[in-house]
Protein 1
Amino acid sequence: MTRPSFQRVLLKLSGEALMGPNQFGIDPDTVASLAAEVKAAKDEGLEICLVIGGGNIFRGMAGAAKGMDRAQADYMGMLATVMNALAMQNALEQMGVETRVQSAIKMDQVCEPVIRRRAERHLNKGRVVIFAAGVGSPYFTTDTGAALRAAEMKCSALFKGTSVDGIYDSDPKKNPDARRYEGLGFDKVLADDLKVMDAAAVALCRDNNIPIVVFNIRQPGNLAEVLAGRGTATIVTNEE
């Protein structure tokens, strides 16, 4: 599949991508492997922003489902994303990649607050910027936070790493005859409820004309390939 070339992208990873073979938490070897792929893509000239979920540590929706106050649970989930961001920052910097973490919840001793113009300067200087703590408010997912940061930073695409190699018309893990889309429009994703990202994130990308590229993050080496415009993925765009 030939995709357009992008200069500045936002990469959205689930927290589960950092678990590796474990059932929860952060696997240092897995984080290092992902960081190496981010570095490889950066070495090809990409400007990269990152948003990492917190589901490997705590998921707000799961906490709320078990009786926790939803807002309190969401704040706990936001803190989990900061831990993941710091882990990725450490892995990248050990490889010589300058990295800055910006958090939507102020914690000046460990990272910067989210300041758009400062993040712009970091990217212009060749640094990777990791945005943590979602949008800083409960009831918003990290998918929505990723779409928001992609729009703020004027990213030319949002890359969403998943456990499958694109978007299918049904769950390929349950239906062996599921058909993968090479490309489709935002309106179809929303109308068919294809679960690419939450509806607010998809609508935000649609309204700001930011393509969403969905790919398999669990296949070793695939992240760098897809970020470089190769590999297997599905791209969601505003169809003409």
Protein 2
Amino acid sequence: MRALADTAEIAASRERVRSALLGRERTVTFVLAAGFLVAAVSCAVLVSSPTPFSVWVAALAVVAYALVTQVEFEIGPGTVVPTELLLVPMLFVLPSQLVPLLVAMGLVLGGVLERLRSRRHGARIAVLLCSAWHSVGPALVIGLLAPGPPAWSDLWVYVCALASQFALDTAAVLARQVVGRGTRAGVVIEPLTLVAVVDLTLAPVALGVAFAAAAEPLAMLCVLPLAALLHVLGAERRRRIDHSIELGRAMEDVARAARSDPLTGVGNRLSWQEAVDTAGLRFESDGIGASFVVVDLNELKETNDTYGHDAGDRLIQALALALRTAIPTDAELARIGGDEFAVLAAGRDDRACEAIVAGIRRELEGLVVGGVPVRASVGAASCPPCMTFDEALRLADERLYAEKIATTRRDP
């Protein structure tokens, strides 16, 4: 079940990336993106570095960074991307104060590549600027405390830079997920922890490459074979997730079919019992009651005998449609017998129950299908005032059959 839940979260994340930014998520995203641009420009202006700037090295780093962003390991609401492999060398082969802006360029270029593959909505490229916050901390720490070529004596500075990376990345993700999307913080912490573990694992490798790249910038490309290997592993994981998503959807379809009445499309006896059980547990824990309405189609046998079973089926379908139209959208509707339907409206008292019954009667008034009027008897009860759901259901049944007997006597 946990695996299926994780797979469902990944499927939802994929759909979200392909959708437009809306509401509070859009506001938070653009605020974070604008904040990053201000921080990155400030860093470029206020911090200095003895490392010379090379246009071709910068262009090479941006393109390589964009390629590495295509290596993804999907986890719940997000992805792990091994950009640590390039971020660390970039801090030493280029002026560190420019690295956040170059990282942003690489992320945006990677987003364009995803857009071309229809894996990202155009508006969500702005989200990538929020992701670039992780580069600001290391650029500031190294630019202020240990500018220039890497040195083992500055290892404590690099540890501080990594800690600042984790801090800003965590803050940006929590702001976007918790504030922007309303996700519980606990749901986000686990993926963030995995991201930190991956970055912590790759950081020593990236630092070793940085020592070589300080003398020869092209050594920075040594990380690409490792990135390619990770891409293969990520692609294999994606295929497994695709299979799990298909399996999960198939299971959902089977579960839905098992709980759906094939003739009318409303719930069946199983879905009704599950709805009653769920509402009963809620009543026991929170005291939230429910109203029950049972509806029985009159003269179905006579219709079948006179006009055929197809005519009877059309009456049943018409009754189901009328009930769905009349009852509240959050109420449960099920066909619990050949000609009997039941409605469960949680949180409704006697007065609300009477309004539901009145709406059903209005919907059925004058309803004719193929020249045959759709007539039904109705019984209803609520808990409270009934002490239990079983008592309410028995009372609703009694009222239904009392009305059915009275109707039969009026129309012999």
Protein 3
Amino acid sequence: MRRGLWSSLALCVAILLLGGVGFWALEPGIHSLQDGLWLAFTTTATVGYGDTVPKTEAGHLLAVLVVLLGLAVLSKVTALPAALFVERVVEAKERQIERDLKRETLLLRNQVRGVEQRLLPFGEPPPHAERSRG
């Protein structure tokens, strides 16, 4: 799952870089790669500060593409760490349940042995002895 996080982050960076280069190439109001990256970031994050906006038809289409791809990847990037955290919590609870079950099993075994020991003087065979004969 951690590998998925790193690949998703790399994909997110790639989308931002390609979006930034695309905006820089397509939009006449974007004069630097830095401005293109800023527009790609604000578009991907759907913040929309309005300081730079796509004005051309091609820029609008690129913005739609950047939003759709960016949201999908950003959703995965934010979901994966949450899933890792939940997985750890669930595993810890499962380990605790296992420990509790082992402890309860040992207690029950000891109680059964105690009952067997109390029944032996009365000539009663232990219950597991009857089962092993049949």
